[in-house]
Amino acid sequence: MKALQILIDGFAISSLYATGAIGFTLIFGVSGVLNLSHGSIMVTAAVVAWLVAGSFGAGPYGGALIGVGASVIVSLVTYGIVVRPIQKSRAIAREEKEIFVLTGTLLWGIMVQEVIAYVFTNNPKTVLPLIGGVVNILGVRTPRTEIAIAAIAWLAMGLLWLLVNRTRGGKALMAAAINPRGLTLCGFELGSIHLLVWTIYGVLAGIAGVLLGSFLGVSSDNAGQLTASAFSIVVLGGLGSVTGSLVAAYVVGYLESLTAYLVNPSIRTVPVLLLLVIVVYLRPQGLLGRR
């Protein structure tokens, strides 16, 4: 019975991790940015969804949509006032811009986190579940919203696959990840491509944040842990590899679930960090990375 519970819960949390981590690795692959404000953006989406659904009576679906919208806005602001100015700066040496972007997004994420804590306190907030009730799966009582979470996460990833593989803009994203100079020679503006990828990232991070808020609840204190989890998944799967991030998300999700159920929830991230150290030592490019 416990094994089935771990299987169900692990699948839901892994799907959440995959949704957020794929967006995280997508902006790295296209724009070369490791966004260390990732967790704060996810928390923003969840807190806004909680506020709008509860205090303004928008209901779970209205709250979720506005929460995702808030995530997109914060994502674009992050790109517009933190990342792009550093990338375009002539005062910063080219080889130093990456560390400046890392530092800038980290500090920006801390600022967003502190604003959330100041306005809403750091008490956990639980987003209204999208679907109420429970269902019995082979003797395990499972909230319906947990099934909906996994379904929505996979729907989002499926739509992303269609966007990337079946639309002109999506194919331009892939081309930007492979050969940005060649893409500009074909008449595409890299600035527009970067705006598109940051918008997609905001949607994915927002969906992951809202779903996480309805599953486990979130607070401003979770921002750092969420960023660390996404970073661990992306490095474990291979920087820039969307497939690698998907595989790594399920490895991390199930490893955390096993640790929480069989050992202690307070140390659920420790085995993941140990695995990350081993993988980085034995295969620095990650499970499916090429570089």
Describe this structure in words.
The protein has 291 residues and is mostly helical. The chain has a domain of 202 residues. It contains eleven helices and two strands, in the order ααααββααααααα. The protein has a two-stranded antiparallel ribbon. The longest helix has 30 residues. The chain is globular, with a radius of gyration of 19 Å. The mean pLDDT is 89.
Quick rundown:
With 291 residues, the chain is mostly helical. Helix content is 75%, strand content 3%. The chain contains eleven helices and two strands.
Q: Which of globular, elongated, flat, extended, rod-shaped describes the shape?
A: globular
Q: What fraction of residues sit in β-strands?
A: under 5%
Q: How many helices in DSSP terms? A: 11
SS-based structural class?
mainly alpha
Radius of gyration: 19 Å
> What is the terminal-to-terminal distance?
42 Å
How many E strands? 2
Q: What strand line-up does the widest sheet have? A: 1-2
Average pLDDT works out at 89
How is the biggest beta sheet arranged?
A: 2 strands, antiparallel
Q: In sequence order, what are the helices and strands, one letter per element? A: HHHHEEHHHHHHH
Q: Percent helix among the residues?
A: over 70%
> Which parts are unreliable, with pLDDT below 50 for 5 consecutive residues or more?
none
